[in-house]
Task: structure prediction
Amino acid sequence: MTVNATPLLRVRRSAIHGRGAFARRDLPQGTHLGVYAGRRYSAAQGVEEDWSGWDGGMTYLFALSDGSTIDGAQGGNATRHLNHACEPNCQAVEEVGPDGVIVLCIVTLVAVKAGDELFIDYGLIIDESESPADYPCGCGMASCRGSMAARA
Result:
């Protein structure tokens, strides 16, 4: 079951895509919104081993620098609803927890007003055989690069 609200954000319909995460109150730059939660797959295990419930149209996978992946669709929380924007107001920051495991924290890049939608830049890493056009962006920002793929 997904938690659809936290003290700092709520989930509701987004004009960008499906559901989005929105600020419940004014948030200063550097506000820690929460930890991206979900089922964790180790680098050795790989997420491909358990694709039984995977929906190719909606994924909540977040790859970490240690090769592990978090699947927010399984046991995730409201942070999984942050949509992509080419001019994000949040970022995902890796931190090492006291147990030595990487956690993914969502932090505001700029001050955000209550009611504003919260965005991160997905920066998708794609195969050479794929085109950035295969991952279109609908953010509508002035500097939209037209794709959710990482900048070249």
Remarks:
- Residues 34 and 106 are 6 Å apart (CA to CA).
- The two ends are 36 Å apart (CA to CA).
- The chain is about 0% helix and 30% strand.
